[in-house]
Here is the input.
Amino acid sequence: MTAQAFDLTTQAAADAGNYNAAMRRAGRRGAGVGLMFLGGFGTVWLVGGCSNAGMGMVGLLLIGLIGAALVALGLRISRETKLGQFPGDDSPAFVKDQAERARQFNRVNAAQWLAVAALIVTLNIAGKPEWIMAGVILIVGLHFFPLARTFRTRSHLVTGAALVLIAIVYPLLTLAGPASPIGAIATGLVLWTHASYALLKSHFFDQQG
Here is the structure.
C-alpha cells in the first residue's frame, strides 16, 4: 500500500468514526428533545384530566413540578449535544440525514395540527364537542406512526398504538363517555412513559459516546 493510499484509508476511517459519533450525539439530542416535548405535553394532559376528575391543588402542583423537571432535563440534554460543534457534524452525509429528518418531522407535525384544528371546527359545527378529546387523542396517536419511520424507533409505534387504543376504548368503557377525564389521564401517562424511555435512551447514547 502506497503512502497516499494509506492516508486515504486512514482519513476514510476517521470520517466514518466522526460520522458514527455524530449520529450518536444526534440520537442523544433527539432523546433529550423527545423528553422535553413528551414530558411537557404529558403534563398538560395529566393536569387537564386530573383537574376535571376533581384532584386538589396539591396533586396538580406535584404533577406540574414533575413535568417541569422532565422538560428542564430534556432541555439540558439537548443543549449539551447541540449539533455543529463536534467533528463529523459538518459531514455531508450527516447534514443531509438530519435535514431530511427535520423536514419529515415538520411535515408530520404540521399535518397533525391542521387535523386537530379541522376536527375541533367540524365537531363544534356538528354539535358534538364532547368528542373533541377522543378525536385529538386519536390524531396524536396516529402522528407517531410516520415519526417512527422518521426517527427509526419502534417506541413511537408502541406509543402511537397505545394512544389510538385509548381513543377508541375509553369512550365505550367509561360512564361519562368521550367527556370522561380518563382519556386525558391515560394519554398523559402514556406520554410520560415514553418520556421516561427517552431519558433512558439518552443515557444509553451518552454511554456509547
Notes: Confidence is low (pLDDT under 50) at residues 3-16, 205-209.
